[in-house]
Design a protein that fits this description.
By secondary structure, the protein is an alpha/beta fold. It has one domain: 4-Layer Sandwich (Purple Acid Phosphatase, chain A, domain 2). Helix content is 27%, strand content 21%. A 6-stranded mixed beta sheet has the order 4-5-6-7-9-8, with helices on one face. It has a 5-stranded mixed beta sheet with strand order 3-2-1-12-13, with helices on one face. The longest helix has 18 residues. The two termini are 34 Å apart. The protein binds fe (ii) ion (FE2) (2 copies).
Length: 301
Amino acid sequence: MVAASVQFGQHAPARRTILHLSDTHLLADNAPLVGTYDTAANLDATLRRVERLGTQPDALVFTGDLTDLGEPEAYRALRDAVEPVAEALDAPIIWVAGNHDERGPMRKHLLDREPTEEPVVSVHDIGGLRIVALDSSVPGWHHGELDAAQLAWLAEVLAEPAPLGTLLAMHHPPLPCHLPVFDILELRDQPALGEVIADTDVRGILAGHLHYSTSGTFAGVPVSVAAATCYTMDISRPAVEVNGMDAGQSFHLTHVYADTITHSVVPVVEAPSGDFFSQEWVDHMASLTPEARLEAFSRKR
Ligand SMILES: [Fe+2]
Ligand SMILES: [Fe+2]
């Protein structure tokens, strides 16, 4: 495992590294999603990319639509695929419920909990970074909502700040969307969430649902939406014509620094890349004085 980060510049290495993945949409017997997409193969390709990162993430966060129909077998297939990867990385998995999930089967077959219909929420201490998984799903519907009880629970959790601050992980992003389809399926009553997180230690919101990578701010808090592992929305078309495509899958590397958080898109593609940089090159740079390093790598020749 290569050292996750070295410091040649002014920023100290990230305090925590999170892998943010979304929308796996697995189906029982690996039935093709909408008759087209091989969701298991696409998840497998994503996980192989995760393994090749060569970094040691502190957690893997999956922001919902874990299965397409909430089938028990699909949840079991998901954990069979992801758990060995997470175990090898020694990183916990944080599962978030989406509108395509079903709370009962998700609890029973993914989380080994009682199969109740309560919102699937959880709080994780990732070495001082708090990650709160919210459940914006509404049983029987595809739009999103956080009811008064869940918001009251969140307010209680946030009453005490965490040493490295808090990330919220939820399926429906509290952001506008330029696509009509997601306007209908948006998170409702977003101001209510804004009131709860105002003046708290929430430093970021991780979300999914849109099947393309995007970002914005909500109530002053950065929101990062990861694309899907199953298929993505081809947004290089007029908004009313946007449809899915079996390309452009990606996930995010989220680096939590002392004073900022970055979200970097990792494309899931097979393509040749150069071989100029290596551990040996980094070791060589590290052996130089700052002035010699600048001379060796920054000066135009
Ligand atoms: Fe989805
Ligand atoms: Fe969704």
